[in-house]
Amino acid sequence: MAAAPGGMKPFYTALGVVAVAGLGAIGWMALRPHNSVAIPVDVTVLAADTAGFRGYLLGSAQAPVEVTEYADFQCPGCQRFEMMQFPTVRRQLIETGRLRWRYRDFPLDNIHKHTRVAAHAAACASDQNKYWEMHQAIYAGQPDWESAGDAAGFFHRYASTIGLDVGTYDACMTSAKYAGRIQASQNEALKLNVGVTPTFLIDGKLYPGGLTSDELKHLVDSLAPPPATP
Q1: pLDDT cut 90: percent of the chain above it
Q2: Is 158 helix (H, G, I), strand (E, B) or coil?
Q3: Are 92 and 213 in contact (CB under 8 A)?
Q4: In which residue ranges of the chain is pLDDT below 50?
Q5: Which residue(s) pair with 67 in the sheet?
Q6: How far apart are CA 143 and CA 76, in angstroms?
Q7: DSSP secondary-structure letter at 99?
Q8: 28 vs 33: CA distance, rounded Å
Q9: What is the 3-state secondary structure (H, E, C) of 24-51?
Q10: What is the pLDDT of residues 134-171, one digit of tens each?
Q11: CA–CA separation, 171 vs 173, rounded Å?
Q12: Homologous superfamily of 57-223
């Protein structure tokens, strides 16, 4: 291959720099949030923030047992429970009508800088009836976004992937519409003396640090024995 003429070398060098910079810009554009996102902490909770809402619920309202999970989207232990234990809990207990799951945000802002934005992203997805899809996507992607400078771009991408109207989602995020709801959830956990995530509330008793699917099944069996097999 013939070498480029000496007078053209600076031109080709500059062209290469522009191309690399362009690829970097495309990657940044793919991950950046479309609008600035900041979810305030310690806001005043209004009646409208909690009216008709007691948590994100999964399962039959007639289930004999309810478990409340207080969790933080950036908590590694919560992520492990979600990915390794919860699928079994969902299949064995929730989908069979024996257990109702109640998820409550307990953001540990002092150690997890993205947790409140993550909680708000899931809340915005709930507006479009996609809460649990976003919930799962955020936990599954935690290893990718937890150390990012700005995680909101990741959540925006998840919103698109699960089929949300991203314009509506973006408007919800930039408005910090659910800051009061998240604060109310944190306040509830603090009032109960929840100190770590995940913590489960079952039949009036707290189980800090999480439980396995087998332990949860044992507890549900003890509170509401399964119907006898004919």
Answers
A1: 81
A2: helix
A3: yes
A4: 1-33
A5: 101, 202
A6: 9
A7: E
A8: 10
A9: HHHHHHHHCCCCCCCCCCCCCCCHHHHC
A10: 999 999 999 999 999 999 999 999 999 999 999 999 99
A11: 5
A12: Glutaredoxin (3.40.30.10)
